[in-house]
Design a protein that fits this description.
heterodimer; A: about 1000 residues; alpha/beta; Rossmann fold; Dimethylsulfoxide Reductase, domain 2; Barwin-like endoglucanases; 4 domains; six-stranded mixed sheet; 34 helices; 37 strands; B: about 450 residues; mainly alpha; 15 helices; about 0% strand
């Protein structure tokens, strides 16, 4: 013991105490296990990107799937893909979650004696299906959504070989447009609308920026065609025709709040007026249009004849006008006629931007589905194989599909995740999730897009074509011979044999420019009658596709449930939009529960009272009303089997079809009555009056022209304030490096002697947001959630407005006024008005202020200013006093009231977390970091090359996905950066400029283009 | 020495009293435990336990069990914190400032007021912990040397707050203890067994020698001098928690004097609310009489006018500033969704205290009790108005919202009152509720110079 001296003793004590404390700290020990054999492409810590195709909707945008150590964690747009050019919508951003959904079926199951599903083996499952088909092959029916060409080929071979038949079913399939295209142009296919270079756009309710034909593509083209920086005249005008102020209408320059169902006749009226004023394509159709009675149409559509004349003349003047045909919400029983009229209008206007060519299309036909239901009811279906569709939810209850299922011998579901349809099946043969399987897509001529797996199947699942091939093999005979010898992957590769597959995999597909064939137009039948409505109610029921949830496909994803609806800000719930006059008549206010009744059904749903909807319309979004699913129903809240919201389809008749048997949605009149109950809607914004504060600014074209060029340092104001008659509307001066240096005194960067010092960093990170381009689509919010591991808080917490979103979109109607009329109850202010499209979408996130109010108040320096101009958070230091959030005038800080990461992410959703971003725990504050992890990653790359981070090397998640290119990130200290150029715009302003917070985010004001005639027709 | 005048009743009954009677009367409070007392303690204990359990649940589950909503990050906890800090002002004011001003009428109430100060500070301090998101890391707020590079932000008003509260608590406790020493010795002399042992330890060997008395009075004097600026500073610092921000409705230079006046106002009201029943139950009418009540009522009237003035000035400045968010906030305070709290505040703090213009009501015990209780309610609502209504409607109208307290916050809020009451109830049984030595001093003074202190 002589050698054991005091120092050794202390070392030992310290070491043992330290190790004891270290063990005591963690809840559970996890081991990092290195690869035994490291895959060639994977370097732990570095992401691997795979080019693939989005399967969330039929548009088929190209995507890059970002994987880390074999797990997809983020979806980014494929810049090479001609449809989306690197941009994505919110639904695509949420696609990662689908793979990790808690609803996923873990393996084949069969309904046991007790009626519950019991696991079985794949052998058993496939054999059972094969045996059932073998009994009566001709009574086999395959029902499912549209799939890619290669998979479709397998499905076709299967039904042909077995003698059954296949029915393609998509809830929203543009059937009327296809029928009209055939009628007017004699072509089987859907026209592709190209808005590039357009100067006047007319949306007849297609919702081109929201749920339309190709929203990401159209948002990009629309924004480029009207960028005020490159179009001094304001560029393209957008006119919206429809009953409610939808997301698309909110971005329009004019809005004709016409009666729903009058789209076709309005198109004819406009065609006639345009033809009279010399529209380029009018010659061929002038005589046919002569019979159109403009006055009668205006009267019946409830549109001012003068407005129609003005618009018609503008169409005639336009060099490149495009009219977009009606979307699902306004697909009436006369929809083919409506679509034909819009197609004709396009030809009258010169037909530019409308490419008509034969396309494969979805093949969906509602008429066939109704026939199938009839067969099922009559017991003529032995085996029903369902894939990629949830007809029990998306068909009207009145269609009788659910009852008909009971008459089918064996119902087999290939569903990936549990839904209403799979819950009624006898056998479950779960399919791979979208990121686990191979496939392809051919959305339009010239584009062939590949889907490649990026995740090894998490569960015991099989791709649908592989399952069918296995079943065919077990059937033997013709069926087995019809199938390719190996598996679906080999079949797919064979189908792509004519291409450089390696290159296709790298680029995500093969993209060629295909010149559209010349178009012939026949305008024989122009007689358009008013839509046939059933029911006795005094309101027209409009069931419109939910921006995020679609027909219900998105409802199982917590991300899409959590993101507030861009127009109403409601999340996790259904709502019924009614006008203020209707609400007054019914004696209801916001959130009061209405009973909505049609001839086919009734639902009880909370009222959303707004100014932006016609008095004779009640509008309910589709997508909710699920009774199965962790997030889709209320099962995740401990209320298994309870519906979340209402299913709008339940109000529709089973036989609502257009002239050609396509599915119609605008068919019902409805009664609404107050139930006397109230259910507070989970909304995130209650007030669209910005009270004239500097939050979502707008300039008229004239004001913009009068403003001096962007480099004047003439103090605040620049004259803009005077134009609005208020001193608070200051357009900020452009970035001045000399001025920026003085940020040091605000940012408090100290040297070791404790003296404030100027930054010596080459970077001052900043962002810009173009309010003029923002449509409110919320793709940025979705991207931010996925990139930054932001938890979803769920319905109850959303009702308390405790969402964790680092980014929200403030939606303002007009400039607002500082009224003091707020009542003694909760303030719900809605300033929308029919015909008014002055809506400003101002994405709001941490402004990274140079003089940040949040920084001095934190007692523990958990938030501070780094020398690159970022307002940074140190989560580990935060003790949760929440003073920073109180003192943030932008209210962009979010507090973890609960340990959301533990409680709100059911397994295996945590597999989708981004390993580069800290997962925040209970009791700490968080907010936008300007994707600092991306900056760090770019810094490492640059440092390895011995350079500074080049301009454009870092894109924030929101910027990267923004379809209309409204958001930019960059280095303000770099004179040549793209951001410096953008922020020098005359439209630049800082939010709440008067507080002198010196934000790092510059907003560009929205431009009031004065409608189709530049305001000349205005009083 | 003038004769007792009509406006200033005598501090003590005219008849000279013997020391032993004073001892007996005051120490009688400490003797015996009635069923009513036990019931009160039990109720308090139950409520404190409920609050404690709720707090543990909150630590486990998260602050989300409160009613916080996106714009309103501070709620009932901070409201109650400020309320208790305010209550804590009366003790030091009465003991220190009035001591320095030689206002003899303070003697009857200073002990209980000091005790209230200590208990109120202890209650308030807990809310700092209850309120934060990660109480297990809340020691980060202390500037102690460590190897993790952790340091505190001396620019943060919350950091100032930490120092202000701990300093104030320390001084209050020392002040309270020093004043208590002679009385502890009396208690020691009367006690037996274990009690005797404890009192002996607490009395620090007090013998009542001239030298000890001299040191004692010096200590009290110096501590008074030390405590006096604290009375003004503590609530000034607490007010800066708000005034240093840019929140409309908080960002006001008047906040420091406004808060100090409000604190004194609420502190005096609380002394009255507590002492009126204590006096009644334990028959201390001889020691706390109309003279004291009248003086306290006058003080309430004065401070009521100060806070009333502050309310008026806040509205005036909001209007005069021309700053729209400021104007909107104040308009919504009065007529928006929180109108109830504002009008409760104004009526309780400004309107009802005007009753004290009437001399009869200043000495009318039921009126005093009711009005002082209303002032307590009003002063709690004052903080509610300042904190909640300001946060509810700030600069970005898209995130205006409504805060409604939940069961958890109300349980802990109620528990804080029970905690305070429980401490006071226990205090009454363990320490003399009126400063015996000072009463004797008065009696001696009176015997020597005849009755009547009113002329001072």
């Amino acid at each position: 013991m002589a050698d054991f001296d005091r120092r050794d003793f202390l070392k030992l004590v310290g070491a043992s105490a330290g190790s004891a404390a270290a063990v005591g700290c963690s809840d559970h020990v996890e081991k990092l296990i290195p690869y035994v054999v490291q895959p060639e492409a994977i370097t732990p810590g570095n992401p691997v990107f795979y080019a693939s195709t989005c399967s969330e909707c039929p548009v088929a945008c190209g995507i890059h799937v970002k994987t880390r150590e074999g797990r997809p964690i983020k979806v980014e747009g494929n810049p090479d893909h001609p449809v989306n050019r690197g941009r994505l919508c919110a639904r695509a951003q949420a696609a990662v979650e689908r793979n990790y959904s808690p609803d996923r079926i873990h393996g084949p199951m069969a309904r046991g004696d007790t009626g519950d599903f019991e696991p079985i083996t794949w052998d058993d499952a496939l054999a059972r299906v094969a045996a059932a088909i073998a009994e009566a092959p001709e009574r086999t029916r395959l029902l499912g959504g549209a799939v890619g060409p290669s998979e479709s080929a397998i499905l076709e071979r299967f039904v042909q070989a077995t003698g059954g038949s296949r029915t393609v079913y998509e809830p929203f399939a543009n059937e009327a447009l296809r029928a009209a295209t055939l009628e007017v142009h004699g072509v089987t296919g859907e026209p592709v609308f190209d808005l590039t270079g357009a100067d006047l756009l007319l949306d007849f309710g297609s919702e081109m920026l929201d749920s339309g034909h190709s929203p990401v593509e159209h948002a990009r083209q629309w924004a480029a065609a009207r960028d005020p920086e490159t179009h001094p005249d304001g560029g393209a005008r957008l006119v919206y025709i429809g009953a409610r102020l939808s997301l698309t209408a909110s971005s329009a320059d004019e809005w004709l709040a016409a009666k729903p169902g009058s789209e076709g006749s309005l198109a004819l009226a406009l065609a006639r007026i345009a033809a009279e004023h010399g529209a380029p394509g009018a010659a061929a159709h002038r005589s046919a249009l002569a019979q159109v009675d403009v006055a009668r149409i205006a009267r019946e559509a409830d549109v001012a004849p003068a407005a129609l004349q003005k618009l018609g003349r503008a169409l005639a003047r336009a060099k490149h006008a495009v009219a977009l045909p009606p979307g699902p919400a306004v697909t009436s029983r006369r929809a083919v006629g409506d679509n034909a009229a819009v197609l004709l209008l396009n030809q009258v206007l010169g037909g530019r931007g409308v490419r008509v060519a034969p396309t494969p299309g979805t093949g969906a036909a509602y008429r066939d589905l109704l026939a199938l239901i009839g067969d099922m009811q009559d017991g003529r279906v032995g085996v029903l194989l369902m894939h990629d569709a949830n007809p029990v939810h998306t068909l009207p209850a009145a269609a009788g599909f659910e009852a008909a299922l009971a008459q089918v011998g064996l119902v087999v579901s290939f569903a990936t995740a549990e839904d209403e349809s799979s819950a009624l099946a006898n056998l479950l043969l779960p399919a791979h999730a979208p990121f686990e399987c191979w496939g392809d897509a051919a959305p339009r001529p010239g584009i062939r897009s590949l889907i490649q797996p990026t995740l090894r199947p998490l569960h015991d699942t099989m791709a649908v074509p592989d399952s069918l091939m296995e079943i065919a093999r077990r059937l033997g005979g013709a069926a087995a011979r019809a199938m390719p010898a190996s598996d679906f992957r080999a079949f797919l590769f064979a189908a792509w044999d004519d291409t450089d597959l390696h290159e296709a995999l790298r680029a995500g597909g093969i993209y060629e420019e295909v010149a559209p064939p010349p178009v012939t137009t026949s305008a024989s039948n122009l007689e358009i009658t008013a839509p046939v409505m059933t029911g006795e109610g005094d309101l027209t029921l409009v069931t419109f596709p939910h921006s995020l949830l679609g027909a219900g496909e998105g409802a199982s994803l917590s991300l899409l449930q959590e993101i507030p609806d861009p127009v109403t800000s409601v999340c996790w719930e259904s709502w019924a939009e009614i006008s203020k006059a209707t609400a007054a008549r019914l004696g209801v206010a916001m959130g009061d529960v209405l009973r909505v009744e049609t001839s086919s059904g009734a639902v009880e749903v909370a009222a959303y009272v707004r100014g932006g909807i016609r008095d004779d319309v009640i509008a309910i979004p589709t997508g909710q009303g699920h009774r199965v699913g962790h997030f889709a129903s209320k099962a995740g809240q401990g209320l298994a089997g309870t519906k979340r919201g209402v299913n709008a389809f339940d109000l529709l008749p089973g036989d609502g079809v257009d002239e050609r048997g396509g599915r119609a949605f605008l068919t019902e009149r409805a009664f609404a009555t107050a139930t006397g109950r109230h259910r507070r809607l989970p909304m995130q914004q209650f007030n669209d009056n910005k009270r004239g504060r500097q939050l979502g600014e707008m300039l008229t074209l004239a004001e913009l022209a009068e403003l001096p060029a962007g480099d004047g340092h003439d103090g605040h104001g620049n004259g803009h304030g005077a134009a609005h008659g208020g001193g608070s509307h200051e357009i900020r001066e452009p970035f001045d490096p000399a001025d920026d240096a003085s940020d040091a005194q605000y940012a408090e960067t100290f040297n070791e002697a404790g003296e404030a010092v100027a930054f010596d960093s080459p970077y001052r990170w900043g962002m810009s947001v173009d309010v003029d381009k923002c449509t409110g689509c919320s793709a940025c919010i979705a991207a931010c959630y996925v990139e930054n591991n932001i938890p979803r808080v769920g319905e109850d917490e959303s009702r308390l407005v405790r969402q964790m979103a680092w980014m929200r979109i403030d939606r303002w109607v007009g400039d607002g006024e500082a009224t003091l009329a707020a009542g003694r109850r909760f303030y719900h202010e809605n300033r929308e008005q029919l015909g008014n499209t002055d809506v400003r979408n101002a994405p709001m996130f941490c402004q990274h202020c140079g003089s940040a109010p949040c920084e001095p108040v934190c007692p523990v320096i958990a938030t501070y200013h780094n020398e690159e101009g970022m307002n940074a958070m140190i989560y580990n230091r935060c003790i949760g006093t929440r003073y920073c959030a109180n003192n943030c005038p932008y209210k962009v800080r979010r507090f973890n009231y609960f340990d959301h990461q533990l409680t709100k992410w059911p397994e295996p959703m945590e597999l989708g977390l981004n390993p580069d971003v800290t997962v925040r725990g209970q009791g700490v504050m968080e907010k936008c970091t300007m994707c600092v992890q991306r900056v760090q990653s770019a810094r490492q790359d640059a440092r390895a090359r011995g350079e500074e981070i080049p301009d454009g090397a870092v894109q924030t998640a929101c910027q990267q996905t923004c379809p209309s290119d409204a958001i930019h990130f960059g280095n303000l200290r770099d004179e040549h950066s793209a951001l410096r150029r953008i922020t020098a715009s005359k439209r630049g302003y800082h939010a709440l400029h008067v507080l002198n917070t010196r934000p790092g985010v510059t907003y560009l004001a929205k431009v009031d283009r004065g409608g189709v005639d530049g305001g000349k027709g205005k009083a | 020495m003038s004769a007792p005048s009509a406006t200033a009743p005598s501090a003590l009954p005219a008849a000279p009293r013997r020391d032993s009677k004073i001892n007996r009367d005051i120490l009688a409070v400490m003797d015996g435990i009635s069923p009513g007392y036990l019931l009160l303690v039990a109720i308090c204990l139950l409520s404190v336990t409920a609050a404690g359990a709720t707090w543990i649940y909150q630590v486990y589950e998260g602050l989300g069990i409160g009613g916080y909503t996106h714009p309103t990050f501070w709620g009932v906890y901070i409201v109650t914190f400020v309320f208790w800090v305010g209550i804590a002002h009366a003790g030091t004011l009465i003991s220190a400032i009035l001591y320095l001003f030689r206002a003899k009428w303070r003697n009857a109430i200073n002990r209980s007021a000091e005790a209230m100060t200590v208990f109120a500070v202890l209650t308030a301090a807990q809310f700092l912990g209850i309120h934060v998101g990660r109480i297990w890391k809340s020691y980060f707020i202390l500037p102690y040397p460590n190897q993790r590079g952790l340091w505190v932000n001396f620019r943060s008003p919350l950091e100032w707050d930490t120092f202000a509260i701990t300093t104030y608590a320390t001084i209050s406790i020392v002040f309270f203890f020093v004043g208590l020493l002679p009385d502890l010795a009396i208690a020691r002399d009367r006690a037996r067994g274990l009690k005797k042992l404890i009192y002996t330890a607490l009395a620090l060997g007090w013998q009542g020698t001239a030298r000890q008395w001299k040191s004692h009075s010096r200590s009290v004097l110096h501590l008074s001098g030390l405590a006096t600026p604290l009375v003004l500073s503590v609530h000034s610092v607490v007010s800066w928690d708000f005034a240093m921000s840019i929140v409309p409705g908080w960002h006001a230079t008047i906040f420091a004097p406004y808060f100090v006046a409000g604190a004194i106002f609420s502190g005096f009201a609380m002394v009255l609310t507590v002492m009126i029943p204590v006096r009644r139950i334990y028959g201390l009418e001889e020691y706390i009489n109309d003279y004291h009540f009248e003086n306290m009522a006058r003080f309430l009237l004065l401070t009521s006018w100060i806070v009333g003035y502050a309310y008026a000035i806040e509205y005036f400045i909001a209007w005069y500033s021309g700053v729209e968010p400021e104007q909107t906030t104040f308009w919504l305070r009065a007529f928006g969704p929180y109108w109830f709290s504002t009008w409760t505040m104004i009526s309780c703090n400004v309107i009802f205290p005007q009753l004290f213009w009437f001399r009869r009501l200043r000495t009318h015990i039921p009126t005093l009790f009711v009005v002082s209780t209303l002032i307590n309610i009003g002063m709690w609502f004052e903080r509610y108005v300042i904190i909640i209504t300001s946060l509810g409607n700030e600069y970005d109208p898209a995130v205006w919202g409504i805060y409604t307290p939940t069961w958890a916050e109300l349980t802990i809020f109620a528990g804080s009152f029970s905690f305070f009451a429980m401490l006071f109830l226990l205090f009454m049984k363990f320490f003399p509720v009126i400063a015996i030595s000072e009463m004797k001093e008065l009696a001696i003074h009176e015997r020597a110079h005849g009755a009547g202190q009113g002329g001072h």
